[in-house]
Amino acid sequence: MYTHKILNIASRNRPLSLKMSEELGISGILAQLLINRGIENSAEAALFLNPDPKDLLDPFLFCDMPKAVEIIRRAARNKEKVMVFSDYDVDGLTSLTLLEEKLTGLGLRVTHYIPNRVKEGYGLNSNILRIVKEEGIKVLITADCGTNSDEEIRELRRLGVEVIITDHHEPTHQGQEIAAQAVINPKMNNSGYGYRYLAGVGVAYKLCQAITGELLDEDLDLVALGTVADSVPLTGENRIITKAGLVKLTHTRRTGLAVLMEASGIKNKKITPGYVSYIIGPRINASGRVDTAEVALDLLMSEHRQEAEKLVTLIQSHNRTRQKIESAILEEAGDLIDKEVNFKEHKIMVVAKEGWHAGVLGIVAAKLTEKFCRPTILISLGEEVCKGSGRSVKNFHLFEAILECKDLLEGFGGHQHATGLSIARGNIADFRDKINHLAREKLRLEDLLPSLDIDMELPLSALENGFIKEIALLEPFGMGNPQPLFYTRNLKIKGEPRVLARETLKFWVTDGRVTCQAIGFGIRRLKESLQEADLFDLVYSPQIDAWGGEESLILEVKEIFFK
Asked: Using the 8-state DSSP alphabet, how is residue 276 labeled?
């Protein structure tokens, strides 16, 4: 942070922003921010600024939804036993919670299965074949998985089990025939659904809407939690879900979530995507990473405070363990990168080591990707089959690259920016070579350089409290709808910066006419440079500072460029 980066300042479309400004009664700046986010007319802008659950698409737009509903209703009439098989992350667990609640409410006998992240890995596996036989399962519904488990699905069908897939992962082959009776996945080209980017819990929510015939807006706390935690774009339906769902989550009636937020120090605070991504989500994920995800599921479904408090204590302990493991792997992976990665040749970093806990590789890969500005794949070495996890940069579709290397893999899955894989130990070197060959063809140099996407260059005089409140209409911010960033040139510091806790600086900046307060987290080291600089440019996000009960404008500093 605070090093030279490529600045991508969005081009202004003055005619369109003026038109939208006049038609919607908003500022030209807000209109341009909407344009920067792909909103091209006033009708789209009005929907974006006023998301309403009533505008969610009809779940029966999914071509296979009628079949799925009929299977479930028939199972209810015949009092058949149903199993929900879910992923072990927040998205999967919220999907499972929602499905189990609604299916049970229909009078179905419902059980579930969550694979062990380390021992079984992602998706359907051979264990499920034995379990459905033993338990007499007649219908199996997947949650946040199943699209690429065709072999297991065919075996389930041979056993007389009807299979419904609810998932959002990329199919390994578009147009592939999937043996399940019903496939509810917006990433399938033939899904019939008009929005591709639902999280797994969003897809499960659609099934629940279809089988109940209700909007289920009271359940949007769960849906928003899984949606934000899975880092899907907060656009379209995800924006509607998240906007309404975060309000529900702030005042959740779910005992387990309420106790977890209280123990995490965010009780009575307005829940934002940041709180989900960095506080709530990692804690729910922690148990599945180092122990069993059943602990987190029990918390999500808990109705009794005393039970929830015990579960939260255990989850907090799991989270601390996860942090220690993660820190150790981060250090070891960094050492391997220093020794093994040639940055001229390796546009994708692939490093492997024995003893790495497979449950935290994705988190570490994400941190290394951010640090080195290039895709990272970490592999935990086993005797024969090794497990890995990868994260990518903005302009590189990692799943598509891994798809082209499938001949070297035992299994794989994921999204554009996050993937998991299993690979034979003897294939790792060839895989590293092949995926880097692909990356050299598709990744440009500028894709591997740190950059900032700036919404607009503004003078300080354009900033005022009313403008900041108008920007708040764009919330919640996240992938696909980033927090607006602005750029102002030729500023000077006024007075002496104050050092606050955690290496934070608070200071005043001026352009000679307007003076604004600014705050920079973790930049205490720049105090002298700021005082000595004749002029500097600032990249920032304007905020309302309500400290002391009075509202005032403050610039949250993202980058400083000294002249």
From this structure: I
Per DSSP, helices labelled H in 379-508 are 398-403, 428-442, 465-471
Cα separation of 451 and 30, whole Å? Answer: 23
Q: What CA–CA distance (Å, rounded) separates 323 from 177?
A: 41
Across the strands, what pairs with 81? Answer: 109
For the stretch 375-432, pLDDT in tens is 999 999 988 899 999 999 988 999 999 999 999 999 888 888 899 999 999 999 999 9
Q: What is the pLDDT of residues 47-75, one digit of tens each?
A: 999 999 999 999 999 999 999 999 999 99
User: For 218, which DSSP code?
Assistant: G
Whole-prediction pTM value?
Answer: 0.92
**Cis, peptide link before residue 273, omega less than 30° from 0:** no
**Residues 552 and 508 sit within 8 Å (Cβ to Cβ):** no
Q: Let me know the angle formed at the C-alpha of 465 by 464 and 471, rounded to the nearest 5 degrees.
A: 95
SS3 letters for 170-199?
Answer: CCCCCCCCCCCCEEECCCCCCCCCCCCCCC
* Residue 65 burial (C-beta neighbours within 10 Å; 0-12, 13-18, 19+): buried
Cβ within 8 Å of residue 305, ≥6 positions away = 255, 259
Exposure letters 212-241 (e unless 16+ CB within 10 A, then b): eeeebeebbbbbbbbbbbbbbbbbbbbbbb
Strand pairing partners for 419?
Answer: 390, 414
Give the rounded distance of the alpha carbon of 63 from its chain centre: 26
Q: How far apart are the first and last CA of the chain?
A: 17
Contact call for residues 419 and 431 (beta carbons, < 8 A): no
